[in-house]
# Entry
Amino acid sequence: MKLLFIHTNFPAQFGGLGRWLAEQGCDVTFATRSRAGSDDLKIVRFQDHRQASPATHHYLRGTERAVITGQSFARAALRLKRQGYTPDVVVAHSGWGAGLFAKDIWPDAKYVQYIEWYYTHPAIDRTPHNAPGPDEEERARARVRNAPFWLDFSAADASVCPTRFQAERFPDKTRPHLTILRDGVDTSLHAPGDRDPALLAAHGIPPASKIVTYIARGMEPMRGFPEFMRTVAELQHRRPDVHAVVIGEDRVAYGPARKGPSWKDRMLEELSLDPDRLHFTGHVPRTMMVRFLQASDAHVYLSAPFVLSWSFLEAMSCATPIVAADNDPVREFMRNGESGLLVDPYDIPDVVAAIERLLDDPEMSRRIGMAARATILGECDAFDIAYPKYKAFLSSLAGR
# Structure
């Protein structure tokens, strides 16, 4: 079975799956505009030839960017076609436009649209930090932002979505065409383990410390960063043995860009914090992230209702005890008091109290952590569950 995966980034959602499918005997090719390399996978590069025009209507700039990206991929795809390459199935990440013209180039191939988010009004992922604009403006922008999804949907033979929460954001008329397939978690890599004293020493953390972790691509309200920092300030005041570790970059990855100082700088200025007990690591290798999760006494996830962070599921797989926002994407995988502690992310005393319950009750923390890992093993294990389901789905679609 010849499979072509298209994503602007690499490895992103498809890297692990593609490697596994190649090991199973599939002919796997990746198309991406990322410059990340791979020694064991066939990769085809494409690059946008220009940016969206500032003269384009601001509702439509995202759509124009998607068309430009789709055109850039199409040029690379036509070169492949002239070389005799014809895939059985094309799987493309939808929304950024990369796969817009795949079905036009290979009309006989089955086209699978991987979907993540449907914009609605009022926005379910809005936080108190983001003041809404005029109602009519917000409603119109949300409707038009979905244009790349509908263009993909019109050509797709199937659509896949990684969670039930995300799938339920899409209009009712699309639901019969959506299949929920988990991305998968490598549970052998993301597994429980002992604390690494050398890792802690390298970051100035005493070995007997209580460690609270936060992981996100950026530091923004969407992922609960301001609330986490306020929680850390209170914990530092109450408990001199607490050290907080923030893994991520000082930028906004999701939500409106911030004007002026970054959210990190703003929170450091606003709060009274002990810098010796607050550790910003920046972006770290995955193996180091796992070691921090293995050392963590409480992992904190205060995201707004949005696409669930991979790191949340990976923390569950590591059996790290978790305090998480009590919202729909979290509840799809976690039960309050059984596999995690769920809180109102904007009630800082509530968040602090939940973390202290974990710090003060190691047996409960261990039980909750192992229940979280059992959930991931039973629903999201990449090699035993998620990837075989993907292969069966793609094989059926291809008529194999």
In short: DSSP finds 15 helices and 13 strands in the chain. The domain at 197-379 is CATH 3.40.50.2000 (Rossmann fold). The chain has a mean pLDDT of 96.
